[in-house]
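Narrative of accomplishments. A recurring question from our advisory board has been how the design workflow behaves on a single, concrete structure rather than in aggregate. To address it, we present the structure tokens for one chain from the evaluation set, followed by the sequence designed for it. No filtering or post-editing was applied between the two.
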């Protein structure tokens, strides 16, 4: 997958991003320029509404969800000990998303009508503390960027940027603008906060961790057919962090990892999700999560590319919940680097497969059977069944002089009511008999 295809625009009616002149370069938020219709701009407390589904390549975790927990405590939100990559900021572990954007801004007030234009610009520049002078020629990759301008009565006016590849030209602000034609009457909620967010997906660059530091900011502008306009303020890049409200807008981006291929967006429960990665992957650790839309973790694991010179790495995770329990629906697969940055968030819709194989293992191997759905099975035999939420009955029949000791399940089998097992996908039924 090329960088330009990392996250398609979920808004088919949106126009293409177009460059516009950068805003003021002096520090501090400037007062809004008012010309024509009056716009009152008041900085308020941001309220973040996480959209449930927005593109095949970008999923939506809650802002309070853990991003890179250690293997022993997958909900802690901290990077695992010993996996912090070169150049990682140890303080970034507390942010959960150290290279993502969540920046509040003043919201416009007043109304817009068909024929007006709402223009949003976000931009970045190289921070003075960066190790690479001017960083000329380095590519910076942004995922889909969402801006939200709250409206009276609920809802918000969206402007969405496709993922984009920038090439740093020098020590200047590098902008990207999105111009959207207003097609219906909208009244903005004065006093609310607008937001710009990458929804926890990180910014990446073609350079190792710690060698580049960037500052991000954004602004909005409303223009009217008569030539007048209302200019919103520019946000001020900062190191401020407040979970669910604002993330630092000055940080070191993650090294670029390209997702060249991935599993289909529609798959079966119990299948293995595969991601082919290239770029900065050799001798790197990656943390992979499988979770529900609401952020409930279903599976997670660290994977390490042990090769020191390779240019590709295949990361995988079984699409199966803890304990073999999973139901059809929309799920998310996240991949993080060892510094905590979420590199990609993928949506996958899961259904039951047409059939599932249940293998039977008994010990001793020649003693005892498992009666599954009315049919007895001995060691090494298997049943071809239809997976689903309806449980299958089971019972044990020991040979003379033996009794059932214990039993367990592997794969996508889980205990239901007494004497019942639910089959979400293939798995193994293990029965152990003992003398007695």
């Amino acid at each position: 997958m090329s960088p330009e295809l990392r996250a398609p625009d979920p808004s088919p009616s949106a126009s293409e991003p177009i460059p516009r002149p950068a805003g003021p370069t002096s520090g501090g938020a400037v007062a809004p320029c008012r010309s024509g219709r009056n716009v009152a701009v008041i900085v308020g407390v941001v309220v973040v509404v996480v959209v449930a589904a927005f593109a095949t390549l970008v999923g939506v975790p809650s802002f309070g969800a853990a991003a890179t927990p250690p293997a022993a405590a997958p909900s802690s939100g901290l990077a695992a000990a010993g996996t912090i990559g070169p150049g990682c900021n140890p303080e970034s572990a507390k942010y959960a998303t150290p290279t993502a954007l969540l920046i509040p801004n003043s919201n416009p007030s007043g109304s817009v009508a068909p024929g007006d234009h709402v223009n949003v610009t976000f931009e970045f520049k190289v921070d003075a503390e960066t190790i690479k002078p001017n960083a000329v020629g380095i590519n910076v990759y942004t995922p889909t960027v969402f801006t939200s301008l709250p409206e009276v009565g609920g809802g918000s006016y969206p402007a969405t940027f496709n993922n984009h590849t920038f090439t740093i030209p020098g020590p200047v602000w590098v902008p990207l603008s999105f111009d959207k034609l207003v097609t219906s009457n909208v009244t903005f909620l004065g006093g609310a906060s607008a937001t710009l967010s990458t929804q926890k997906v990180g910014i990446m660059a073609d350079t190792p961790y710690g060698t580049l530091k960037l500052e991000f900011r954004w602004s909005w502008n409303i223009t009217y057919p008569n030539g007048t306009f209302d200019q919103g303020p520019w946000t001020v890049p900062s190191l401020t962090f407040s979970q669910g409200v604002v993330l630092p807008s000055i940080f070191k981006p993650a090294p670029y990892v390209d997702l060249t291929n991935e599993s289909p967006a529609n798959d079966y429960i119990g299948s293995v999700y595969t991601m082919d990665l290239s770029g900065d992957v050799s001798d790197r650790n990656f943390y992979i999560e499988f979770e529900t839309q609401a952020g409930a973790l279903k599976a997670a694991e660290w994977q390490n590319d042990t090769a020191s010179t390779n240019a590709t790495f295949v990361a995988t995770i079984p699409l199966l919940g803890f304990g073999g329990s999973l139901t059809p629906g929309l799920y998310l697969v996240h991949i993080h680097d060892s510094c905590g940055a979420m590199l990609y968030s993928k949506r996958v819709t899961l259904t039951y497969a047409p059939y599932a194989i249940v293998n039977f293992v008994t010990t001793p191997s020649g003693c005892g059977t498992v009666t599954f759905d009315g049919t007895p099975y001995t060691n090494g035999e298997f049943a071809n069944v239809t997976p689903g939420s309806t449980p299958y009955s089971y019972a044990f029949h020991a040979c003379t002089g033996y009794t059932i000791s214990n039993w367990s399940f592997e794969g996508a089998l889980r205990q239901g009511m007494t004497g019942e097992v639910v089959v979400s996908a293939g798995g193994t039924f293990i029965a152990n008999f003992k003398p007695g």
